[in-house]
Specification:
By secondary structure, chain A is of the alpha/beta class. Chain A contains 8 helices and 11 strands. In chain A, a hairpin with a 2-residue loop joins strand 2 and strand 3. Classes of the chains: A alpha/beta, B alpha/beta.
């Protein structure tokens, strides 16, 4: 019997299938709400698990497009899902920083793992994955290369953390002034980190701090965020799947009242 | 009429203020617009005029942007927009108080953007207490009276004001009882609750009181619906149907409010003895716990916590009107006081131009999970 969690995000779709507390299949598709991405993620996760749709006992949808996923038995907000998913990945976690494609959230967990407080960014792309995408576009470098470029920087160039549109023209000005690309990229990472750090401080930062969502893969942002917050940040290679994992856990708990540990297969 | 029919009646008025205004105008009445947050409606009422609340509307803003900067309260902008679009045509005047910087801008812009409807300023003092404070307030009222007489030809009479004060006190009492009843009747949705308060701005108070009394009588005979998760709201405004539907969808019951457009209007009564104009100034001095009223002791956060606890609310939703400086200054104090009292707080930013409520839904859904 499988329990499915599907996270329909603004730019990606993720699916995790649980069986007896173990991840039986997972998939991530770089297509979000309003595309065939959710269906593909679901099908690919089923294929990875060698299962059929009728093997799924309960499906919980989360993410920005959770209401659009017709196959859901239940929906939960992405904050609840990331809180659940990260607590299972990091049992000591008290603060979860989730930087997604179009927003950023900070979740405070109590000692028992329950969500105690949370904050979301306002309607602005600054401090989100979208900010990095726009900047990567301006620099004409693949977004996956930002981390390696930031690591080559000698000195991060100052980039505004206030507004994506203003920051874009600042990046162009920096390039026009001859600032090396790695320094500009490092400045971009610092900009995202400074915005998210301010959000995290509003929620209250308690260790252990973990990072979730697609931007967690970017070491440049992670390290800048560690410096801004003054605490180490843990992350998982599965960070982008944490929301879908949390949704799958919710499906499992709702169906069977389980509280067991989840293992990635 | 049963409860459902009575609620529909309030909804019809709340959702069609222009229709309501037209009805009064066609009956030969003269309508005076009263802008937020506290306008001395009693003066307008006492002169035989119909006070009609002007709190703006959820709408795209186009013409108003010619007069206002981009980052200013959308309530003010939408009031001007409605004026420029002719929605208030037929009104004899608009009274705009000076309770925040945005309201002051609205008054000055109104003179040029909507010249057909005379602007009457109600200038309140910052320090509203003592002989000097109440004297200043009284002078403001006298200015409003003189301007109303000039704009409408109606005459002011202190005896008429004394009668109007009684009408408004009776309405306050009815609204407070209604608020208590709504805390128990979870089956009345958040949007329906909003209609009950919003409609009060578009009706003569004696008419609204009669409707509220009817509803209270109907509710007394009914078993309250199944309990939901009780929350309290606080802010300037919380009347967007799309936002309020989210409360209902998520099983959140607004059991109390500290919203300027709702319960804050009805907390303070006016003395029915002595000089009525002085009594009205004393009423303003006695008001408090509001972001636009000078509050050196910051009593509002404590009041929010006490009210939430008294009503059994499990959390507080701050409906923060975007670019409202006075409210923004109060939010850290409210959060701190609530958190110290073990009351979770959710902050939802709202404005009159919101068309997408997905972020608000996610936030409230997560808040519900925290409260559960």
């Amino acid at each position: 019997m499988l329990f499915a969690g599907i996270d329909v995000g603004s730019t990606t779709s993720k699916c995790v299938l649980l069986s007896d507390g173990e991840v039986a299949g997972a998939a991530l598709v770089d297509m979000g709400i309003g595309t065939a991405g959710p269906e593909r993620a679901y099908s690919e996760a089923l294929a990875a698990a060698g299962a059929a749709p009728e093997d799924v006992a309960c499906c919980v949808a989360t993410g920005y497009g959770r209401a659009s996923w017709k196959g859901a038995d239940l929906t939960i907000s992405e904050l609840t899902a990331h809180g659940l998913g990260n607590r299972f990945l990091f049992p000591e976690a008290r603060t979860v920083i989730d930087i997604g494609g179009q927003d950023a959230k900070v979740i405070e967990l109590d000692a028992g793992g329950r969500m105690a407080n949370f904050v979301m960014n306002d309607k602005c792309a600054a401090g989100t994955g979208r900010f990095l995408e726009v900047m990567a576009g301006v620099l004409r470098v693949p977004i996956g290369e930002l981390e390696a470029l930031a690591a080559q920087a000698e000195k991060a160039a100052p980039i505004s953390s206030t507004c994506t549109v203003f920051a874009e023209s600042e990046v162009i000005s920096q390039l026009a002034a001859g600032t090396p690309v790695p320094d500009v990229v490092a400045g971009i990472c610092v900009s995202v980190a400074s915005r998210v750090a301010a959000l995290a401080k509003r929620a209250g930062v308690k260790e252990q701090v973990c990072m979730s969502g697609g931007v967690a893969r970017n070491g440049g942002v992670r390290r800048a965020l560690e410096r801004a917050l003054g605490v180490p940040i843990v992350w998982s290679a599965q960070a982008q799947l944490a929301g879908a994992l949390g949704a799958a856990l919710h499906a499992w708990h709702k169906s069977e009242g389980q509280r067991g540990e989840v293992k990635y297969g | 009429m049963n409860t459902r029919e009575l609620l529909s009646r309030f909804h019809a008025v709340a959702s069609d203020p222009r229709g309501q205004m037209k009805k009064y105008l066609e009956a030969g009445e003269r309508v005076v617009l009263t802008a937020p947050v506290y306008t001395p409606e009693e003066l307008v009422h006492a002169m035989g005029l119909v006070p009609m609340g002007a709190w703006g509307a959820d709408m795209p803003l186009e013409g108003a942007k010619e007069y206002f900067p981009a980052f200013i309260c959308s309530v003010m902008q939408s009031i001007l927009e409605l004026g420029m679009k002719g929605v208030y045509d037929g009104a004899s005047a608009i009274v705009i108080p000076s309770l925040c910087d945005s309201l002051k801008c609205l008054g000055q812009n109104w003179k040029y953007a909507v010249p057909a409807i005379p602007f009457i300023p109600m200038t309140y003092p910052q320090n509203r207490w003592g002989r000097v404070g109440t004297g200043f307030t009284r002078a403001g009222y006298e200015r409003v009276i003189a301007d109303l007489e000039r704009a409408t030809g109606a005459k002011f009479d202190p005896a008429g004001l004394a009668e109007s004060i009684k009408v408004y006190n009776a309405h306050n009492a009815a609204m407070r009882r209604l608020d208590e009843a709504l805390a128990v009747h979870a089956e009345i949705g958040a949007a329906q609750r909003s209609d009950l308060f919003k409609s009060a701005f578009f009706m003569k108070k004696e008419e609204h009181t009669a409707w509220v009394e009817e509803l209270l009588a109907a509710l007394e005979g009914e078993e309250p619906g199944a309990p939901k998760i009780k929350v309290m709201t606080t802010g300037i405004l919380c009347d967007s149907p799309a936002l309020l539907d989210i409360f209902d969808d998520l099983g959140l019951h607004i059991a109390a409010d500290d919203v300027a457009a709702q319960s804050r209007q009805y907390r303070t009564d006016c003395a029915e003895t002595g000089d009525p104009l002085d009594a009205l100034a004393e009423k303003f001095a006695a008001m408090g716990c509001c972001s636009v009223l000078y509050d050196p002791d910051k009593k509002r956060p404590r009041t929010v916590v006490e009210q939430a606890k008294a009503r059994g609310a499990k959390g507080v939703v701050v409906a923060l009107t975007k670019f409202c400086d006075p409210e923004e200054f109060d939010v850290p104090f409210i959060k701190r006081e609530c958190q110290a009292a073990g009351l979770p707080v959710a902050l939802v930013e709202i404005d009159r131009q919101m068309v997408n409520f997905e972020q608000a839904r996610t936030l409230l859904e997560t808040f519900r999970d925290v409260l559960e």
